[in-house]
Every structure is written in C-alpha cells, then in structure tokens.
Amino acid sequence: MVETIKKNLSLTEFLDHPETKPASEYINGKILQKPMPQGEHSLIQGALCEVINQVTRSQKIALAFSELRCTFADRSLVPDIAVFRWQRIPKTDSGRIANRFNTYPDWMIEILSPQQSTTQVLNKILQACQQGTELGWLINLEEATVLVISQNQRLDVFKEEDKLPVLEGIDLSLTVDTILEWLTI
Questions:
Q1: Distances (CA, A) of 123 to 12, 99, 109, 110, 127
Q2: Is residue 30 part of a domain?
Q3: Residue 175: HSE in the Cβ half-sphere, 13 Å Cα cutoff
Q4: Structural domains counted in the chain
Q5: What is the CA radius of gyration of the chain?
Q6: Range of the domain at 128
Q7: Tens-digit pLDDT string for the chain (185 aa)
Q8: CA 183 to CA 49: how far, in whole Å?
C-alpha cells in the first residue's frame, strides 16, 4: 500500500474526496492507496465472489462483494472481498441495496499482492475482527497459504488440502489447493 500524505484529514473529509483507482483506504488517520490488482489476484477475487454467491445468494444467506467500501470505527476499508450476511446488508427505505456500507463485513477476504506488507494487511483484518467481523482470510498466493483470523482474533495458517473455515451457515467446502487450482487456465 502506498501512503498518501494528507495532514489532519478527517474520515468525513476523506469520504468527500473522489474515489481513486485503485481505491484508497482510511486507516488510523492515514490514507493508503491499495495496489492495482494483477492477473492472479484478479482471477482469484472474481472466482471466490462467484463461488460464494452461487452458494449463498439464492437462499438469501449472504452476498460477496468485490472492492466494496466499508466504513466503520473511524476507518474506511475496501476489502478485496467483503461478505455480508443477508440480514446485515444495508438497505434503503424502499428495500433496495444501499450505496454506502457504514458497517464492517461479516467475512473479509484479502489477497496479498507482491508489493503489499503482510503485517499491514493482517492488521487491517485484525482491526475489522475487533469491531465485529466474524472471519478474515489473507490469501498469500506466493506462499500458497491462507492466514485465517477468527472473531476471537485467533490466527491459523492453512495450506494444501486444509479445509478453510467459512461463515457458519454457508455450505461451502474450499481448500487452499482448490483456490490455487483456479490459477491454471
């Protein structure tokens, strides 16, 4: 992540600025621009959203969103994938999905880019879990691992054929190897 220096910018002022490409995040009073996703990152992100939504959408269990801004606890994050339980998806008075999500995701998935700091991204997931996020994944394609943080802030490392935990109530079975296989086209 590249830090953009802006002194004394509040979260409200940050949100009033136009969106950047790639997205910028507001964390601990700092503005950090995410790296531009590359091929592997982009493929995994799209495939994971698709797989999660195939299992959850029709039964109205949850929805996975790609690059959705989530603003909560004086932070504004743009997880690679934010999964919301159906009943927690913000809606307008007319019942349509809201444009602004002023809450934490139930499940946050980040895919580590080569130029990103593992510690920085892991800390972002940990902070979300401290605010109510039930599950966080940090997918490290280079190391072929998925670091998982649960709501109690326990950190576990998954690799190869380890079955990855998902949100309770979602009937989805994924392993690290399954996710890595998506990269072969």
A1: 22, 26, 13, 11, 6
A2: no
A3: 8
A4: 1
A5: 16
A6: 36-181
A7: 554 545 578 999 999 989 999 999 999 889 999 998 899 999 999 999 999 999 999 999 999 999 999 999 999 999 999 999 999 999 999 999 999 999 999 999 999 998 899 999 999 999 999 999 999 999 999 999 999 999 888 999 999 999 999 999 999 999 999 999 999 98
A8: 15
